[in-house]
Design goal:
This protein is α/β, with parallel strands linked by helices and 312 residues long. The protein folds into two domains: 3-43 and 191-276; 45-188 and 277-311, Rossmann fold. Helix content is 39%, strand content 25%. The strands form three sheets. The protein has a seven-stranded mixed beta sheet with strand order 3-2-1-4-5-12-11, with helices on both faces.
Length: 312
Amino acid sequence: MNSITFAKDIHKGLSAKNKYLSSKYFYDEEGSRLFQQIMELPEYYLTDAEMSILQTKSGEIFSTLNAIKLNIIELGAGDGIKTIEFLQHLTEAQAEVTYYPIDISKEAIDQLSQKVTKALPNLPVKPLVGDYFNELGHIPSSAAKNVILFLGANIGNYTNDKAVELLKLINANIRKGDMLIIGIDLKKNPALITSAYNDNQGVTRAFNLNLLTRINRELDGNFDMSSFDFYSTYNPDQGEIRSYLVSLKDQKVMIGFSKKQYHFAKNELIYTELSKKYNKTEINELAAKAGFTCIAQVEDELGYFADCLFEK
């Protein structure tokens, strides 16, 4: 990652009237390890809920796709466990699948490609490294239906306007009749959502504070971890859980790389992440605003999560 860009983004956030840090910087090596730990927590229902959909309802999803020849194009596949589950069900159903994972990280793509090839040696894997929307244009035109995978409730990290903007970009880069399978976390008992984002073990707290550790290490900052805490809050009407770091005292922090100093008042908040939840009506509205039709919302058995099929 470019340190200059990192420093500029940190300066922009910490010099704003309402301070913020971009969640895209959570995922250094330690941050990725901590997030893996979060996904294994009993409170964090999202991963298990979506996995159960792909384990038990991939046949239903395949039927809705209404095609045998498929290009499965994944935007940011992560560790690939859920994707492999889905691809396995498609091949068992005799679908003719070519898998195109897209990620900006060549290392991540190489690791994923190896995992998929090991699990499904007869499945063609054609990795693409780069920006999602640049790389979508490099997929050869064919009779196969293009199906974009955007799993894991990533859409929830965007405000409604930004989510629509992103989905419009996807729409503009696929053909009429192509589809998007998008993971969306559903509105439910607020207590379940709150505990998923503020676990008793303190892993989510460590995950957020690690961003300050990363700034110290990569940008020569002098954040004192003991002088900050973590807080999250859920608004059930808006379906938004927002995460913050909290300054525990009046303090100044220096970032050596950019030679900038920042003042934090006691109890001042630094906004770190949004995670939005949707109901069924809101999902249909989201699809329509981006030029899609939501033709199916496939839920896990508890109704916690949905993999939704949007058709262009």
